[in-house]
Amino acid sequence: MLPPTLKWEGDALRLLDQRALPLETKYRICRDYEEVAAAIEDMTVRGAPAIGVAAAYGLALAEREGEFAQAAKRLAATRPTAVNLFWAIKRMEETRAAHENEKNLAELLALEAAKIHEEDAEINKSIGRYGAALLPDECAAITHCNAGALATAGYGTALGVFRAAAEAGKKLKIYADETRPRLQGASLTAYELMADGLDVTVITDSMAAFLMSRTKIDVVITGADRVAANGDAANKIGTYGLAIAAKHHGVPFYVAAPLSTFDVKCPCGAEIPIEERAEDEVRKIGGQYITPPDVKVWNPAFDVTPSELIAGIITERGVIRAPYKENIEKIFPGGNA
Q1: Whether the predicted pLDDT of 335 surpasses 70
Q2: Is 205 a catalytic residue?
Q3: Which candidate in 225, 232, 263, 303 is catalytic?
Q4: What homologous superfamily is domain 126-335 in, according to CATH?
Q5: Distance CA 104, CA 251 (A)
Q6: CA distance 224 to 75
Q7: For the domain 6-123, what is the CATH superfamily, name and number?
Q8: pTM for this one?
């Protein structure tokens, strides 16, 4: 059984330290918003939905110290690509504005953060049900990065689809891209799926296309950190290449993401801000250099998959398909996220 990713303890936020997995299970205690911000930045907690939940609790902690505004600005600066972060901050700001004259404001904000936490788990289960219906009774699938319970408040988005399919009695074989440079697929996705008793095989990112040429793959499912108004989707670096390979081999490529991941004010993928991370993430593995120490490195954390490569976006309200701009507009009329 997986340990909980986040746990609110009344005066602190307890975060599962994902950097230590799968070899060690340990928690990090955050007692103020700065500690939450640092935990988001160094990827103690990661995954767009989980980041949003953590930020919400961080704002509840900040209110106790009278530092809500500073905290909102600081938390918004931690990870620029994951739109769930900004969605959660906005929701907490709106809650605060609606109750700003009440004496127990900090408590009300903590309750709102808990509500966001609980809702995320239910949303993921709904995504799972819609996604599971797309899979054949015997299914071979590829996924990238980690879009599971560890990346959310529980259950997962892409991995939630596999969980729901398994719960429905479907037989799955899942290939998990290792996901360079931080290896979330090899360390976290493999750990999660094995904990659930699912059949998982780790492959390097560069093996996926060859695997599709030699083995019948029924589907590719990934998560997303931001979906633009035209259906372009940002996800962990390597997703775009996987989608191209899937298209070439006639394998449907799906994105599983809650509606809070949609940024309808962003017209297309070219406008999505892409976080660039430290060069040593590429130069080193396990703290050891695998490259010349002073070699130049480009390290974007995300890439963008154009909507024409996406067979459908699995949400808690069903599967959105092309034409994406029109169908996303039906869900967010007037561009209101």
Answers
A1: no
A2: no
A3: 225
A4: Translation initiation factor eif-2b; domain 2 (3.40.50.10470)
A5: 53
A6: 20
A7: translation initiation factor eif-2b, domain 1 (1.20.120.420)
A8: 0.94
